[in-house]
Amino acid sequence: MTEFRPQWVDDYTRASTISHEYDRPVVREGLRSIVAVPVVVGGASRAVIYAALREPTPIGGRVCDMLLQAGGRLAAEIAVRDEVDQRLQLLEALESGRVPTNAALLEGLREIHTQIRSLVKAAPDGALRESLRDVSDKLVGLTNGDAPDKEVTLTSRQVDVLAHIALGCSNITVAQCLSIKPETVKSYLRGAMNRLDAHSRHEAVTRARRLGLLP
């Protein structure tokens, strides 16, 4: 937990480098060879993954690699959930009226909306993706109030691209954020502009906000 790296013992009962504070449950289970891998998120250990054998045999590098990969996946999921929790706290504050609405806050909410759209792809499971999309839609509703009936619909990817364009991102930056090619960004942007009957990037963003498609 403190050194942010895996630790192991080949024979728990005989190891001299550990505290033996948990001897009773470990010995009762007959565990001998044990490895522990920390799950590090944002420079802090948030969890530990353990694996053990019931014989004093060194645990091979392949097992350690598998545990490290599992720890990396879990760290990514925790990071995404942390982001979601922070955004939900802000939403709750907005809904309760504890946070005043002003231009700076609106711009911050738009940035959060864009970040959440980017997190959807990184989310490790379908349920979390749906939660992220719900939060994204909620942000749009909060910033637009009672938006008029949508005359235009955009695909999810077109909204992703426009959300980044609204923050002033170039096509190359959008491509990097969404892990797609710049040519693909241009294609999504052209499609969104056609649906919005817009003749420029700025006009597309303005119409999308007016229609309640963006915050």
Please provide a written account of the structure:
- The protein has 215 residues and is mainly alpha-helical.
- 58% of the residues lie in helices and 10% in strands.
- The protein has helices spanning 23-29, 61-95, 103-122, 126-144, 156-166, 171-178, 182-196, 201-210, and strands at 7-9, 33-41, 44-53.
- A three-stranded antiparallel β-sheet has the order 1-2-3, covered by helices on one side.
- Strand 2 (33-41) and strand 3 (44-53) form a beta hairpin.
- Helix 3 (103-122) runs antiparallel to helix 4 and helix 5 (156-166) crosses helix 7 (182-196).
- It is elongated and about 75 Å long.
- The relative contact order is 0.09.
Topology diagram in text:
Blueprint: E1 7-9, H1 23-29, E2 33-41, E3 44-53, H2 61-95, H3 103-122, H4 126-144, H5 156-166, H6 171-178, H7 182-196, H8 201-210
Antiparallel strand pairs: 1-2, 2-3
Order of helices and strands: EHEEHHHHHHH
Overall pLDDT level: 81
The number of distinct helices, counting runs of at least 4 residues, comes to: 8
CA-atom Rg in angstroms: 24 Å
Write down the oligomeric state: single chain
Helical/strand content category: mainly alpha
Described by the principal axes of the CA atoms, the overall outline is: elongated
How much β-strand is present in the residues?
Answer: 5-15%
Tell me the major beta sheet. Answer: 3 strands, antiparallel
Unreliable residue runs? none
- Tally of extended strands? 3
